[in-house]
TrEMBL record:
Organism: Lentibacillus kimchii
Pfam families: SNF
Record's bilayer topology term: Multi-pass membrane protein
Transmembrane segments annotated in the record for this chain: 12-30, 42-64, 91-115, 142-161, 173-195, 215-241, 253-277, 297-320, 341-360, 380-399, 420-444
Keywords: Membrane, Transmembrane, Transmembrane helix, Transport
Stated name of the protein: Sodium-dependent transporter
Annotated InterPro entries: Na/ntran_symport, SNS_sf, YocR/YhdH-like
Localization (cell): Membrane
Amino acid sequence: MAQGDKFRSKAGFILASAGSAIGLGAIWEFPYMTGHAGGGAFFFMFLIFTFLVGLPILLAEYFIGRGSQKDAVRSYKHYAPGKSWHLVGRWGIVGSIILLSFYSVVGGWILVYLLKALTGGLSNLGSETYGDVFAAMSANPFIAFSAQIVFLLVAVLIVSRGIKNGIEKASKFLMPALLVLFIIIVVHSLTLAGAAEGVSYFLSFDFSGLTAESILMALGQSFFLLSVGFSNQVTYSSYVAKDENLVRSGTTVVIMNIFVALLAGLAIFPAVFSFGIEPEAGPGLLFIALPAAFSQMPLGMVFFTLFLILFLFAALTSAFPLLEIVTAALTKDDQSKRKKMAWLVGLIVFIVGIPSALSFGVMSDVQLWGNTVFDNANYLVSNIMLPLGALFIALFVHFQIPKETLWKEFTNGMSKGRRLFAGWLFIIKYVAPIAIIIAFLNVIGVF
C-alpha cells in the first residue's frame, strides 16, 4: 500500500466500510432472504448474530488490517510469518471473486431498470405485471451480459483510481443520499393498503417455522451485511490512520447497516403484502415489489428513478471492497500496477459470473440440489464461505496476535475500555467460534 493512499477522514472510512454492505447486502439480499427464511424470526436471529458475532469479527478484521498496514494476504503473513495463515486472506480473495460474480449480475439488473425508468418502460403498468417485466429482463442473455459488463466497468474504473480519489469520494456522497430517499420510500410503503400485514410478517417473532438452515442463513446474513469473513475489512482498515477509534467506527458501521436493513424490510414487505406478491419471490423481490409500490404514489416513477440511481451507486460501494481486496493483493504496494490489476480482476469476475448471468434464462434448467448456478453461488458464499472465513479469522486472532497488540489496537483513541476489551476477547476466543460450529452442526443434523 502506498503510504499516501489512505482514507482522508473518519467519515470517509465509516461510510466506505458501511457502504461495502449496505448497497446489496442490506437492500437487495436481506429482504429476499428474510422472505425465504420465515420473516420476523429470521430477523431476530440475524440481529442476535450481528451484535454477538458479526461486530466482534468486524473489529477483528479492523485490528488485523490497521495493525499490519498491509493487504489481506500479507496482513496474515505479517503476524504469522512462515505459517499457512495467509490462506485465510486467499480464501477471502476467492470468495470475493465468486461473490462479485453474481453481485455484478444484480448490479446489471439495476442498470437495466434505471434505463427502463428513464425511457418510460416502467410507467403505466399494472402492479401485477412487474413480475413479468423482471422475468423477461433477467432471462434475456444479451441484456444480462451487457448490463453486467457495464456495471463492472464502472466499478473497476473507480477502484483503479485508488482510495482517496475513488472509493472515499464516491462513498461520502452516495450513502447519505440513499438513506434520505429510503426513508421517503418507507413512509410511503407504510401508507399502502395491507401494509400492517407486511410489517407484522417482518417484525413478529414466530419461531415455530424457524429451521436449523434458517439459523445458519441468519448467521451468514450477519456476515454478509457487514462484509466480514473474506478479509475485505482487513484491506479497508489498512488504509486507516493509527489514531482512529476502530471500536467506535465498527459500532457505527453495524448500527448503520442494521438501520438500512430495517428500512429495507419496512419498504419491501408492506408493498409485498399490499400487492399480493409472494415473500419467497427470491432474488427479484426488490425489483418486483418496489416498482409496484412507487406506481401507486404521485410522481412515483420520478422517485423510483432517483432511488435506482442511488441504489446503483450503493451497489457500486458493495463492489468496491470485493475488487479492492484482490487488486490490493496483486499490486503489493506498487501503485503503478493498480489500474492494470483492477482491470484484470474485473475480467476474471466477468468470466466467472457468466453462468450466474444465464441462470434465469438459457441455463435456468442447469441446477444442482434443486437450485440454479446463481442461487448456489449465493448460498456457497453467504452460508458456507463467509461463516468459515469468520471462524478462521477468530482463530487467527486467538492464536497468532499477542494480547498486548490487540489491546493497543482496541484502545486507540480511547482513554479506557478494559472491560470492553475483555468481553470482546472472550467472544472472539469462545463465543464466535462455538456459535459458528454449532450452526454448521445443526444443519448437518448432529444436533
